[in-house]
Specification:
- This protein has 405 residues and is an alpha/beta fold.
- Helix content is 37%, strand content 17%.
- The protein has helices at residues 16-23, 87-94, 107-115, 136-149, 160-168, 185-190, 192-206, 227-237, 253-260, 277-282, 300-307, 321-324, 339-349, 353-367, 372-385, 395-398; strands at residues 2-8, 28-34, 43-45, 50-52, 64-66, 98-101, 121-125, 154-157, 176-178, 213-218, 242-247, 266-269, 286-289, 312-315, 331-334.
- 43% of the residues are buried.
- Mean pLDDT is 94; it is low at 394-405.
């Protein structure tokens, strides 16, 4: 059995189920090295502007350890937030055949890259260049990233925009392996019926008229997400029998509440923890992610909404747009920042209830191809090319049939 060391910042609700999936493979042993304990202990989230702790198990079912972090301000919001001097020795004690990095732009990871020569290193990232950067500073940054990427023996990409990003930074195509972004589809799908029952009750509790269709935004109320664009487009669209629900918290919440105060059909709900997210998406007739800029590297909320059979409206700056949203099939894509275009998308989407149902069904069908099985296939292809695994084999033969949810 080959040994894979995975180094990542902290327990993440999207990755922990994948690690459990990997741990159940019969020819691969994994250990996850965490550099921070956010998510399993209550800590302030800079985006949500409140202390949070995820309410689903993030450490069950796979081998892991926390590497001591001596940063004076631990976190992923700055370069020195992950400072773990014993990382190399901890990983070396595990004696892996290969190492997978899920981040690199922190002091501990640069130190690791500079000193690790024991085994091959893989990288999995999700950045894109959908918003081109220009000027000397951008050019220098690009040159630096090109040098960093030369350090990796293989790179896992999550989608088309991410593939283009790696190619633009000099990664050869034969070192790129498709390992798509995925969530725990099984958990969301298994709660489909219950979530819709809960959503009807929640709709009543929020005061949304029972006959109203619901446009949903769920996430951090921060500038890059552009919830203010959605609010403006909704108010201009003047849609009958329709409500807008903004779920989450963040720096823009006071401004949004102030703008919406005089409008009867704009509703707010606070941060919802992971166990409540199926219900959150179930309340919607359409899900909207209007992000602007390069910061929305994928948008895993879109995966979640699609698991609940929801049509999607996204801006063209959202990393997953080109992969997950097919214009006229399961949703709409509009130019980021163009509230007029977003208004027209809303009007078209809400013009036909049957259209929404059909597009939601297309979403559910499409998201089945973005699962932990597909994520693992890309990883196995990379390991095979490196000679660590003999050859890609039938995933079902290698997976031990056990619950990992």
């Amino acid at each position: 059995m080959k040994k894979l060391a995975i180094i990542t910042s902290h327990p993440i609700q999207y990755y922990a189920p994948w690690f459990r999936y990997l741990a159940a493979l019969s020819d691969l042993s994994i250990r996850v090295f965490y550099l921070w304990d956010f998510g399993i202990t209550q800590k302030a989230d800079h985006g949500f502007q409140q202390a949070i702790q995820w309410d689903i198990p993030l450490l069950r079912g796979y081998d892991h350890e926390f590497v001591p972090n001596i940063s004076s301000s631990p976190g992923t919001h700055h370069f020195w937030g992950l400072y773990n001097p014993t990382l190399n020795s901890r990983v070396r004690a595990y004696a892996p055949d290969v190492v997978l990095l899920m981040n690199y732009n922190y002091v501990s990871l640069y130190q690791f890259l500079a000193s690790w020569h024991d085994t091959p290193i893989l990288f999995r990232g999700d950045s894109h260049r959908l918003v081109p950067e220009r000027g000397l500073k951008a050019w220098l940054r690009q040159q630096w990233i090109r040098q960093v990427f030369r350090r990796f023996d293989g790179v896992l990409y999550v989608g088309q925009a991410n593939y283009d990003y790696f190619r633009a930074h000099g990664v050869p195509s034969d070192r790129l392996f498709f390992s798509p972004h995925a969530i725990d589809n099984e958990r969301f799908s298994s709660e489909h019926a219950t979530a819709h029952e809960q959503a009807q009750q929640w709709k009543q509790e929020l005061g949304i008229p029972s006959h109203h269709r619901v446009i949903l935004f769920a996430g951090k109320l921060i500038p890059k997400k552009r919830p203010n664009d959605l609010l403006e487009a909704f108010l201009e669209a003047k849609l009958p029998n329709t409500s807008l629900l903004l779920v989450g918290s963040g720096a823009l919440e006071p401004e949004l509440r102030s703008r919406a105060a005089s409008h009867d059909h704009v509703f707010f709900a606070p941060f919802q923890n992971q166990s409540l997210m199926p219900r959150t998406y179930a309340i919607a007739d359409v899900f909207v992610l209007p992000s602007y800029g390069g910061g929305e590297t994928w948008g895993l909320a879109v995966n979640e909404a699609m698991c609940l059979a929801k049509p999607i409206i996204v801006s063209n700056h959202v990393g997953c747009a080109i992969d997950l949203v097919e214009q006229g099939q399961n949703g709409w894509i509009f130019p980021a920042g163009d509230t007029g275009a977003l208004k027209r998308c809303l009007q078209e989407a809400l013009s036909d209830r049957n259209l929404l149902i059909q597009q939601g069904e297309q979403s559910l069908h499409k998201i089945q191809h973005y699962s932990y099985s597909q994520v693992t296939t890309g990883l196995r292809q990379a390991l095979s090319q490196l000679g660590i695994l003999s050859k890609p084999e039938d995933e079902h033969k290698l997976y031990i049939q056990q619950s990992y949810s």
